[in-house]
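Table S2 (continued). Query chain:
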Amino acid sequence: MAAPVELAPGVEAMLVTDHAAALRVLHSPELFAKDPRRWLALADGTVPADSPVVPMMMYRPNALFSDGAEHLRLRQAVTDSLDRIDPYQLRRFVERSSDYLVDQWAATGRVDLLNHYAKTLPLLVFSELFGSPPELGDRLVAGIAGIFDAVGDAEAANTMLTGALVELVALKREQPGSDVTSWLMAHPSRLTDEEMIHQLVMLMSAGTEPQRNLIANGLRLILSDERFSASLFGGGASVEDALDEVLWTDPPMANYAVHYPVRDVDLSGVVLTRGTPVVISFAATNSDPALIAHGRRPSNRSHLAWSAGPHACPAKDSAWLIATAAIEKLLNRLPDLELAVPVAELDWRPGPFNRALTALPARFTPIAPRPAAPAGPAPARPATAAEHPEPGARKGGVWSSFLNWWRGQ
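Corresponding output:
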């Protein structure tokens, strides 16, 4: 049902573990709001602003943390812009990104699939989708990675990310292109620059950390479970089947979708107090015995890994395509890929929200990087002048290196 938990020292919340109860919370915006300014313990100082969970829960003027008409306005801008993504171009870009990453370590025969593949690929993809020129793309990649990794100066990483987005928004005001940033900007919702930045932070954050966990958790299952590993050569269960299994058993966000009761609410016999964070355990609700008939999980996708209701993930189709294409392309390049350690020895990162590995070491027969082909087109979106820096411009970042590699193929 729902039980009290401590998300971090001194941060109390109610965790919903029942599937039906979770659906009631997610589908009842008149009872459960998303705006964290309703969080009474944070507002009165009981929860300190520097608590490690606050950055994931604090208010920002974006579609994730808004309600009512404001939520509808912001979400419509987001969903309409995401709907303009061409799935065929997206798959092509994922596959080229995969080739680039594999070529970096193909000759070694060993790789950490989390940190050198699943983590970096979504950053490349999102830099492309949002129309980042090389130097800004490098800073976006470094800023997002610094925030989620919690290594070094997270405040400096946040400053880097924000500064890069300010410049990206200014650039797209002057030179719009065929990208999500420009589509958001041109939407009838008429987002301000501040709103633009907050929607971009939301989309990039939600689309990188969960995406890398989905890819890594999918690879872990495929490489360790004979139902899937055997099928790589003999048919049967597919990559999509494996990802469905992951979304049931190891969803990238194990617990999230924080809501705040607008008044005291009785939820299946448990009173949820006004202004107390209510966290949905996607992992627990997916294993609710009420969903299992005759010892089998439903074959449909009734899990809550994408959340549900007004705040359900607006990018699940693109996220699914990215994960599927990333895994299929990798396995096609490295057909004898296998885990380098027993699956039981893999470590999971601590934390109340993510279901994330710390590493995914693997080995394979070394292969030579693909030979360079005659120069082909760069990414499909129209290039800006900033994407062709003068000699001596910065070229050392992952996004710059990728674009140089792409143009050499």
